Amino acid sequence: MMVAYQGANAVSNKIEINSLDLFYGKFQALKTVGMSMRENMITALIGPSGCGKSTLLRCLNRMNDLIPGVQVKGNVRLDGADIYDSSIEVAELRKRVGMVFQRPNPFPLTVFANVVYGLKVAGIRNSSRLKEIAEQSLRAAWLWDLLKDKLDHPALDLPLDQQQRLCIARLLAVQPEVILMDEPCSALDPIATMKVEELMMELKKKYTIVIVTHNMQQAARVSDFTGYMLLGEMIEFGVTNDVFTKPTKKLTEDYITGKYG
Ligand SMILES: Nc1ncnc2c1ncn2[C@@H]1O[C@H](COP(=O)(O)OP(=O)(O)OP(=O)(O)O)[C@@H](O)[C@H]1O
Ligand SMILES: [Mg+2]
After folding, report:
1. pLDDT at 55 exceeding the cut of 90
2. Fewest Cβ atoms closer than 10 Å to its Cβ: which of 90, 114, 213, 220?
3. What are phi and psi of 224, to 5 degrees?
4. What's the pLDDT at 248?
5. How crowded is residue 59: how many other Cβ atoms within 10 Å of its Cβ?
6. Beta strands 42-46 and 70-78: pairing type?
7. Phi first, then psi: what are they for 97, rounded to 5°?
8. What does the alpha-carbon distance between residue 212 and residue 225 come to, in Å, rounded to a whole number?
9. Which domains, and CATH codes, for the chain?
10. Cα(61) to centroid of ligand 2, in Å?
């Protein structure tokens, strides 16, 4: 089912999802999902636990490929090209479409080594180049002033919100185009959450962001578009303000008014 936008303009879609089915063995976790993600916008995925939000998010950079027994049908296009096509280099795709997880997951290395990790893997050895990109990435994640004198400190000693922003800096260093965030604030307190939300608003100027959140206020605050999922289906997808103030489906209304979920 392709759910039409409410209030769509001719803006380019970074990602287009069509008739997407996903099976974990015999269990169907996504059912003919259709939606798209606009370039330089934040798209939120909401819905009750187990409805398939993380599964859908992981389809966007083929992280589900890592789970045995997964079968995907339908298509996901990134800039018009099917990412499930056999010609796609998955490592390259995951660089273009990076992911931030629920729990910050810095490597047990220094701050600097975390930020430049992906660059080193990509073979960049020039130390002034690495320093330059590390500074740019930390600045972009609003960490430079906090951490410029702590580049050699263990990343795991940082407070959780700085760890999460460090994971964002680590992504930015490899120059992604899309940033996927799976409940990126669920381990953070309200002030740290606000900081990450503000950072997202800043990052969308350069990147396309997709966020999964359990927190409807968060979806309403930060996102431009919202998709409401239930039992593997995309029930409603549209401009965030419309979804929250005048949903077209009774199921959506029940969820956002707290009658369900
Ligand atoms: N690796 C897996 N193997 C089998 N089933 C899975 C796997 N991962 C998820 N599922 C099932 O797929 C469905 C969707 O799960 P998913 O994690 O995508 O939901 P979610 O909306 O992200 O939930 P939550 O809000 O709790 O994170 C659930 O029924 C879940 O049990
Ligand atoms: Mg999830």
Report:
1. yes
2. 90
3. -90, -35
4. 96
5. 26
6. unpaired
7. -120, 95
8. 12
9. 13-104+177-256 (3.40.50.300)
10. 15
Q: What is the dihedral of CA 172, 240, 84, 115, to 10 degrees?
A: 10
Higher pLDDT, 193 or 2: 193
Tell me the residue type at 244. F
Pocket test for ligand 1, best of 20, 26, 33, 51 (most atoms within 8 A of CB): 51
Q: How many Cβ atoms from other residues are within 10 Å of residue 89's Cβ?
A: 9
Q: How does pLDDT run across 149-196, given as a tens digit for each residue?
A: 999 999 999 999 999 999 999 999 999 999 999 999 998 999 999 999
Which of 30, 33, 28, 42 minimizes the C-alpha distance to 2? Answer: 33
Token pair of 45, please?
């995925």
Distance 212 CA to ligand 2 centre (A): 7
31, 45, 54: residue to mutate for ligand 1 pocket, most atoms within 8 A of CB: 54
Per-residue pLDDT of 78-114, as tens digits, reads 999 999 999 999 999 999 999 999 999 999 999 999 9
